[in-house]
Amino acid sequence: MERRKVVIALGHRALGNTLPEQKAATKSTAKIIARLVKEGAEIVICHSNAPQVGMIHTAMNEFGKYHPDYTFAPMSVCSAMSQGYIGYDLQNAIRSELMKEGVYKPVCTVLTQVTVDPYDDAFAEPVKVIGRTMTEQEAEEEEKKGNSVIRTENGYRRIVAAPRPQDVVEIDSIRTLFEAGHVVIACGGGGIPVLEQKTELKGASAVIEKDYASGKLARLLDADELMILTSVEKVAVGYHTDHEELLGEISVDKAREYMARGEFEPNTMLPKVEASVEFVEEKEGRRAVITSIDKAVEGYLGKTGTVIVK
């Protein structure tokens, strides 16, 4: 059986939104991961964390609000917490499913930091909404701290930057575990964004798009395949129009043509396609697959999904 090194990006559908939903969703996702392993995939998993990190950010800051002796939790700490508790459910569920299939394969989660550029233009244009709804007075207090807020239907919410990943700090540890045959969960939520300051790493008030982090991780690990699992079986152009077209196998050049035409939504499908193109074009023989979580095995076997090749 041919064995392929695969980095898988899991969207929020694979994880759920609440604690009970996450418990159920990770069990379903684990069955799919176990099937992929049986089909020959050596796997590293990156996952989203938007609902989870938002819940943690809200809970920690509400706690700090009513307990003056405690400090508010910065975004980097909230990201670290989300990696821990998502990884806990995911690795245990995958371990259980592999054992049911008669496969012994260690599963582990690596708390992962990802460096970002302090001069990234994203810091001047924050786009990711995070945390609870605030009053106008609370929003003003946030702005006094140097944080950005946006007015919403129900009040105000904080927004943070989404800079591009530059490097994965724990890449050597991830690579060692991966090459030793482990299923590795890493760069959860896109990774904990950090800034390099001489010998220290300082948490950044930001979130990293998990699709870009997955692509970066796949390139650093020299993976054979990047698989981005989302809510649709295939990527569409002309989305929600009379000339909508579902894409099967396309070249990097064709994908770039579609991107230049503005076919993909900036904060949803575009990062998936862009990360795929960057991964595939770097080296011959690679491919990227974008498909739904329930079609992951068929996508891996080349039976469905949008496949991007050089």
Describe this structure in words.
The protein is 38% helix and 25% strand. The chain has 310 residues and is of the alpha/beta class. The strands form four sheets. The chain has an eight-stranded mixed β-sheet, sandwiched between helices. It has a four-stranded mixed β-sheet with strand order 8-4-10-11. It has a three-stranded antiparallel β-sheet with strand order 5-7-6. Helix 2 (50-66) crosses helix 3 (75-100) and helix 7 runs antiparallel to helix 8. The longest helix is centred in the first third of the chain and has 26 residues, at 75-100. It is globular and about 60 Å long. It starts with a strand and ends with a strand. The model has no long low-confidence stretch (mean pLDDT 92).
| Strand segment tally | 17
**Arithmetic mean pLDDT:** 92
How far do the termini sit from each other? 24 Å
The biggest beta sheet is recorded as: 8 strands, mixed
Radius of gyration: 19 Å
Structural class: alpha/beta
Stretches where pLDDT falls below 50 for ≥5 residues? none
Q: Give the helices and strands as they follow along the chain.
A: EHEHHEEEHEEEHEEEHEEEEHHEHE
Tally the helices: what do you get? 9
Q: Reading side by side through the largest sheet, how are the strands ordered?
A: 3-9-2-1-12-16-17-15
Beta-strand percent range? 15-25%
The residue fraction in helices comes out at 25-40%
Categorize the overall geometry. Answer: globular
Catalytic activity: hydrogencarbonate + NH4(+) + ATP = carbamoyl phosphate + ADP + H2O + H(+)
InterPro entries: AceGlu_kinase-like_sf, Asp/Glu/Uridylate_kinase, Carb_kinase
Pathway: Metabolic intermediate metabolism; carbamoyl phosphate degradation; CO(2) and NH(3) from carbamoyl phosphate: step 1/1
Keywords: Kinase, Transferase
